[in-house]
């Protein structure tokens, strides 16, 4: 009997032979890993092969939703606004209206400048300027030949300028060249264009104590709100406007939390054009914000790829016209996101599609007077035109949106293929270690052929599994694990 302790524990001959070999460090490390994994029980195999990949898939598909749902944990709500009541009626005099707000009355109204950055919202811009026309001294508009994300675009306002002859004598129009810097944060390009707009406002002739309206094209203050502010004295130097939030059209009322639009008493050297919070006072019920309110599906796609939050387009199928139309009809979210709120109560309360609203009371006058032309913005008209438009660099008035490289939205052309490739690599490693296939080369060839056949457009080949070589297993458990791996890979 040999000196030492005797152990009756059974050993795995394969592991014993492999672990006892003299080999390279890399080969020895892989062998040890194989020995460890072969000692795991069946439940552990299922965990590695099923639960772990499913967890990775869930995070990949819904990671953004998870972070938005947990937002109340990692981000505090902003400081609340001081909301001022808003009084208005056609039959109440301006003097009484100013007094109701706690302001005095002026002998003459202030001049008002409306300044916007323009992308492709021709219809909304028309409705905006028709609403504000009686009270605006100068309309200032800046257009760039690129989007915030660096996509070249035609000068659409220049092309459609004939539609705006009614404000031609009050119009200051400027253009700015895009910088076309790939990979740059789009908010940098947006800030660059807003600085250019700031210069254009000064060129338009604005003076101290004039009112400057800062808002996006789709953030439309009501005409009576602007008239009130130009006549009343002792108003705040900066006043944010609370607008009713609508999505896709005036059929989907979201809430009244739009606040970025603001009115400033201009001060030379101090006032700068911006689109963030600049004061704490908010005038309630001051207009409308109609986001993604477009006539054509192609315009939705263009904006999804062009605006500063392009990173929300996480998958290429988000740009599919049929999907976009279906989302509009349901009142769901184009980017499949959870509500951007700061409490769990508000997040849960706003989850799901936006309820339909069938009220068109107190909407914009020009919109209702031209309801047939703009019926897609009114309740009950969710169906959009699917006209496919094209773009060129000769100031053509159309868009080409389907053949642009996906690099403009920071993604590869088929993000699902990336996931499939990563999953394939994961299963190859696991199958190599656990399957008991006699040859590592055989395992790689087998799974590579399976993956190729699964991705092959030929339906017959897509489900074929050809074994060009004999495949042996050490026991039934190894064979079962291997075929489960193959089946899961086929399902992907």
TrEMBL record:
GO terms for molecular function: beta-1,4-mannosylglycoprotein 4-beta-N-acetylglucosaminyltransferase activity. Keywords: Membrane, Transmembrane, Transmembrane helix. GO terms for biological process: N-acetylglucosamine metabolic process. The chain crosses the membrane at residues 42-61, 418-440. It comes from the Eukaryota. It holds the Pfam family Glyco_transf_17. One of its GO terms (cellular component) is membrane. The keyword Transmembrane helix applies. This is Beta-1,4-N-acetylglucosaminyltransferase family protein. The lineage of its organism: Eukaryota, Viridiplantae, Streptophyta, Embryophyta, Tracheophyta.
């Amino acid at each position: 009997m040999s000196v030492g302790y005797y152990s009756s524990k059974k050993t795995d001959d394969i592991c014993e032979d492999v672990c006892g070999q003299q080999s390279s460090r890399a080969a020895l490390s892989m062998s040890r890993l194989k020995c460890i994994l072969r000692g795991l029980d069946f439940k552990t195999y299922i965990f590695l092969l099923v639960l772990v990949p499913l967890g990775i898939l869930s995070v990949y598909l819904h990671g953004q939703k998870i972070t938005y749902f947990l937002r109340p944990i990692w981000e505090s709500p902003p400081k609340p606004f001081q909301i001022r009541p808003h009084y208005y009626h056609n039959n109440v005099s301006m003097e009484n209206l100013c007094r109701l707000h706690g302001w005095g009355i002026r002998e003459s109204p202030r001049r008002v400048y409306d300044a916007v950055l323009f992308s492709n919202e021709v219809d909304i811009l028309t409705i905006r300027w028709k609403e504000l026309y009686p009270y605006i001294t100068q309309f200032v508009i800046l257009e760039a030949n690129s989007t915030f994300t660096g996509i070249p675009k035609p000068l659409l306002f220049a092309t459609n300028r004939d539609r705006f002859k009614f404000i031609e004598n009050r119009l200051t129009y400027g253009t700015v060249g895009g910088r076309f810097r790939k990979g740059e944060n789009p908010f940098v390009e947006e800030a660059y264009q807003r600085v250019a707009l700031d210069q254009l406002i000064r060129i338009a002739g604005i003076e101290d104590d004039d009112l400057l309206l800062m808002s996006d094209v789709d953030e439309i203050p009501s005409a009576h709100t602007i008239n009130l502010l130009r006549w009343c004295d002792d108003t705040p130097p900066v006043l944010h406007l609370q607008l009713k939030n609508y999505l896709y059209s005036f059929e989907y009322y979201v809430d009244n939390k739009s606040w970025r639009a603001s009115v400033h008493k201009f001060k030379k050297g101090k006032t700068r054009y911006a689109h963030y919070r600049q004061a704490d006072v908010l005038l309630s019920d001051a207009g409308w914000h109609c986001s993604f309110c477009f006539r054509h599906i192609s315009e939705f796609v263009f904006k999804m790829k062009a605006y500063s939050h392009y990173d929300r387009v996480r998958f290429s199928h988000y740009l599919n016209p049929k999907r976009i139309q279906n989302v509009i009809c349901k009142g769901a979210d184009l980017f499949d996101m959870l509500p951007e709120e700061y409490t769990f109560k508000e997040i849960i309360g706003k989850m799901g599609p936006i309820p339909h609203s069938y009220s068109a009371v107190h909407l914009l006058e020009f919109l209702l007077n031209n309801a047939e032309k703009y019926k897609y913005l009114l309740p009950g008209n969710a169906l959009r035109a699917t006209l496919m438009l094209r773009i060129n660099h000769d100031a053509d008035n159309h868009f080409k949106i389907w053949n642009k490289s996906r690099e403009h939205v920071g993604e590869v052309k088929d993000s699902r293929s990336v996931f499939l490739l990563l999953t394939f690599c994961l299963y190859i490693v696991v199958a190599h270690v656990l399957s008991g296939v006699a040859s590592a080369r055989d395992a790689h060839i087998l799974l590579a052929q399976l993956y190729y056949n699964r991705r092959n457009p030929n339906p017959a080949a897509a489900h074929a599994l050809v074994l060009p070589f004999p495949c042996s297993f050490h026991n039934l458990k190894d064979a079962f694990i291997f075929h489960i791996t193959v089946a899961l890979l086929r399902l992907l």
